[in-house]
Amino acid sequence: MIELLQQYWPNYLYSDGFNYSGLVITLWLLVISIVLGFGLAVPLAVARASRNPWISRPVWLYTYVFRGTPLYVQLLLCYTGIYSLNYVHTHALLGEFFRSAMNCTLLAFTLNECAYATEIFAGSIRETPAGEIEAGLAYGMSKFKLYTRIILPSALRRALPAYSNEVILMLHATTLAFTATVPDILKVARDANSATYMTFEAYGIAAILYATIVFALIWAFRRMETRMLAYLKPQGH
């Protein structure tokens, strides 16, 4: 393992300004897909929780498709399927975008993450206590203010435990990026294994890196839950 670390540790951990390490690529995929997915999921969750079927049904269809099909298939469709369409590969901007493995991977991950986050947030919005809504209406809040000041802040806080699990699952899902030739941690591990035939060591290092990231995420989310959900704990007398 020492020999493998000496030869390949820069590929796992170190970025030289031109080539990014597997760790950096993995974190980049995770952060971008989570940030974009979250930003898209919040308004879609409001639409999904709407009682108007013309608003909620299209969002339901989107989440149904992306939650009902494997992420690997979605990645292949984005990476090879869309670019094979004549209109796409002959269009300057679309062709340039879908020629990039990183762009296609981020697109698939973001859409998949958004679908799961939308359902998590929508369920939390539906479970908003009626008393909180009535209090906002009693203050004369408009529907927009009701959502931005009461419903969404309360719902996002209560959705935090479920959403933290989804973020960790998204980290696990980034291991599919190597199939699109994106040089993430798993791709580096496969290259190291192919060059050295030190299978246990190559994948063992990858497992340690993934576990470290997961433990850091768990710690961060637990701190957030302790701070943001403190009002839900029983108060002592």
TrEMBL record:
Chain ranges passing through the membrane: 20-47, 202-221
Localization terms from the record: Cell inner membrane; Cell membrane
Primary localization class, coarse: membrane
Record key words, sorted: Cell inner membrane, Cell membrane, Membrane, Transmembrane, Transmembrane helix, Transport
One of the GO biological process terms: amino acid transport
Molecular function GO labels: transmembrane transporter activity
A single GO cellular-component term on record: ATP-binding cassette (ABC) transporter complex
Pfam families hit by this protein: BPD_transp_1
Membrane topology of the entry: Multi-pass membrane protein
ABC transmembrane type-1 domain sequence ranges: 23-218
NCBIfam families assigned to the protein according to its UniProt record, in alphabetical order: HEQRo_perm_3TM, PRK15069.1
Oligomeric and partner information: The HisPMQJ complex is composed of two ATP-binding proteins (HisP), two transmembrane proteins (HisM and HisQ) and a solute-binding protein (HisJ). The HisPMQ-ArgT complex is composed of two ATP-binding proteins (HisP), two transmembrane proteins (HisM and HisQ) and a solute-binding protein (ArgT).
Membership in a protein family: Belongs to the binding-protein-dependent transport system permease family. HisMQ subfamily.
Protein name: Histidine/lysine/arginine/ornithine transport system permease protein HisM
Species the sequence originates in: Paraburkholderia caffeinitolerans
Lineage: Bacteria, Pseudomonadati, Pseudomonadota, Betaproteobacteria, Burkholderiales
